[in-house]
Amino acid sequence: MLGQSISKNSLLLAAFALATAGTLALTNLGTKDRIAAAERAAQQRALFEIIPLPSHDNDLLNDVTPVPQSAQALLNLGSEANIYRARRNGEITALIIPARAPDGYSGDIDMIVGVNRNGSVAGVRIIRHKETPGLGDKIDLKKHQWILSFNGKSLQVPVIEDWKVQKDGGIFDQFAGATITPRAVVGQVKRVLEFVAANQQTLFDDQQTTPTEQPSVAGEHHE
């Protein structure tokens, strides 16, 4: 009798454990999906902050090209990462490139960097970070305007040697008590610009036919 009771209780405990594990797994899956959706929404908002709707006439969210495998290590990204392309009349005018600074004070800092055709920065936005509230989180535009200091900068202005925080002899401000965070962001934005400069022709020469640029019919004569 005692053995039957123990066996029954063991089965009940096992069933409860399975049910609990299943509930936790479903909850975790649902939470991960919500987090992923929230991150995607934040990224989309940031895209249009960097390249506003009036400045391009294509579907920015769907005009993408994969980050080249050769650049994945430089940008600290995986194979699923895409570059967004802004166009006017079929010509690529700017790129929005994802990147990850692995050397933040509290870990990875995910960002997107807009780069104009002339190599200047259209804008930078931080998508995700774990930096210290009140210190390193000033990289977030909702907390501080520091991130706007990249606008219009290039590898020529300032010169490449000045792409450092002031504490390291560069021109970019650091935060009092939180130099590591801005140093990581400045370094990664610089690496994005170097990637674009090294691949300028490949990245910007992909043309699209627009409604005003109809392809010629074979044998058709135009003056």
Automatic annotation (TrEMBL):
Residues 204-215 have a biased composition (Polar residues). SMART domains: FMN_bind. GO terms for biological process: electron transport chain. Its cofactor is FMN. Residues 1-19 form the signal peptide. Residues 204-223 are annotated as: Disordered. The modification FMN phosphoryl threonine is found at residue 179. GO terms for molecular function: electron transfer activity; FMN binding. One of its GO terms (cellular component) is plasma membrane. Keywords: Cell inner membrane, Cell membrane, Electron transport, Flavoprotein, FMN, Membrane, Phosphoprotein, Signal, Translocase, Transmembrane, Transmembrane helix, Transport. It is found in: Cell inner membrane. Pfam families: FMN_bind. It comes from the Bacteria. Its EC number is 7.-.-.-. It is a single-pass membrane protein. Its main location: membrane. Residues 104-196 form the FMN-binding domain. Part of a membrane-bound complex that couples electron transfer with translocation of ions across the membrane. The complex is composed of six subunits: RnfA, RnfB, RnfC, RnfD, RnfE and RnfG. Belongs to the RnfG family. This is Ion-translocating oxidoreductase complex subunit G. The gene is rnfG.
